[in-house]
Amino acid sequence: MSMLWFLVLSALTIVPLFKLLPQYGINPWFALCAVFLPGLIVLLWIMAARVED
Question: Measuring CA to CA, how many Å separate 37 from each of 3, 15, 16, 31?
């Protein structure tokens, strides 16, 4: 049952990132890094830094 929750939450995180990352000039396949929490934090940090440019 916990694996099902993991897959659902991963999909709810990765699918929006696939759509958002190209707008920030980042390859959308990096959204798969969001499966792991540190990868998600790094992606969000990079996206926030690109807003200021």
Answer: 16, 15, 16, 12
Cα distance between residue 14 and residue 35, in whole Å: 8
User: Pick from 17, 4, 8: which is nearest to 47 by CA?
Assistant: 17
pLDDT digits (tens, 9 = 90+) for 4-45: 999 999 999 999 999 999 999 999 999 999 999 999 999 999
CA dist 39 and 10 (Å) reads: 12
What pTM was computed for the model? 0.80
- Residue pair 10/35 in contact (Cβ under 8 Å)? The answer is yes
